């Protein structure tokens, strides 16, 4: 985190916008001084300078709903900070998921995280990784796995076991993502096709 921040511009404080690292939702906004920034880096818990308390305030210090730091970056002119974090619970003191009263329960953004892991397994294979072992076996094996998982979800679809069905649904999605990566395509390219179809 190499950050060039102009603390003088705003009397020692810069706005810090906190975004959920997984969902991308904006969680809250606070102010950091240099000390708050250092403490955030050192503790890994997002810490602000509270103007009402007139002291450093680690989000979650009373509620337990800390925000674990993932990354920080500075905007183009050095006067605001984007903090990506994993919230341990609802962020707002009102009990809402975010200070903008938005829900932050969608987990679909985890797909992007999963894709990043799959990419990494392809680039940096390890012996222990199942994904890496599939890439090593090649496209025929990967495509075959997708076919097997597709058959398995069809079988579970005919029954009424939620756990087994969701398990097969997860397997199919996971292997589908591996197949895309093996073919060198992005999920966005599939989305393009769907968006284009939707336009018609
Ligand atoms: Zn709030």
Count of extended strands = 6
The topology string of helices and strands comes to EEHEEEEHHHHH
- Note the gap between the termini: 45 Å
The protein's oligomeric status is single chain
Number of helical elements: 6
Order of the strands making up the biggest sheet: 2-1-6-5
- Low-confidence segments, given as residue ranges, are none
Helix content: 40-55%
Percentage of residues in DSSP E strands: 15-25%
**Mean pLDDT, all residues:** 95
Give a written overview of the molecule.
With 200 residues, the chain is an alpha+beta fold. 44% of the residues lie in helices and 18% in strands. It contains six helices and six strands; from the N terminus they run ββαββββααααα. The chain has helices at residues 34-43, 110-123, 130-137, 139-158, 162-183, 187-199; strands at 14-20, 26-32, 47-50, 55-58, 67-74, 81-87. Strands 2-1-6-5 form a four-stranded mixed β-sheet, with helices on one face. It has a two-stranded antiparallel sheet with strand order 3-4. Strand 1 (14-20) and strand 2 (26-32) form a beta hairpin. The radius of gyration is 22 Å and the shape is elongated. The model has no long low-confidence stretch (mean pLDDT 95). It binds zinc ion. Zinc ion is lined by residues 28, 92-93, 99.
């Amino acid at each position: 985190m190499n950050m060039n921040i102009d603390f003088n511009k705003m009397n020692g404080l810069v706005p810090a916008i906190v975004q959920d690292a997984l969902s991308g939702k904006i969680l809250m906004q606070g102010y950091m001084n240099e000390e708050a920034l250092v403490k955030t880096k050192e503790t890994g818990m997002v810490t602000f300078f509270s103007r009402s308390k007139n002291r450093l305030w680690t989000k979650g210090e009373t509620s337990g709903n800390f925000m674990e730091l993932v990354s920080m970056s500075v905007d183009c002119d050095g006067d605001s900070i984007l903090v990506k974090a994993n919230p341990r619970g609802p962020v707002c003191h009102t009990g809402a998921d975010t200070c903008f009263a938005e829900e932050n329960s969608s987990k679909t953004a985890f797909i992007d995280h999963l894709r990043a892991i799959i990419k990494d397994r392809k680039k940096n294979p390890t012996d222990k990784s199942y994904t890496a072992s599939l890439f090593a076996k090649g496209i025929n094996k990967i495509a075959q796995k997708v076919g097997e998982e597709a058959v398995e979800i069809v079988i579970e679809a005919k029954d009424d076991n939620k756990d087994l069905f969701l398990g097969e649904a997860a397997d199919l999605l996971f292997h589908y993502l591996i197949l895309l990566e093996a073919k060198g395509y992005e999920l966005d390219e599939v989305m393009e096709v769907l968006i284009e179809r939707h336009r018609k």
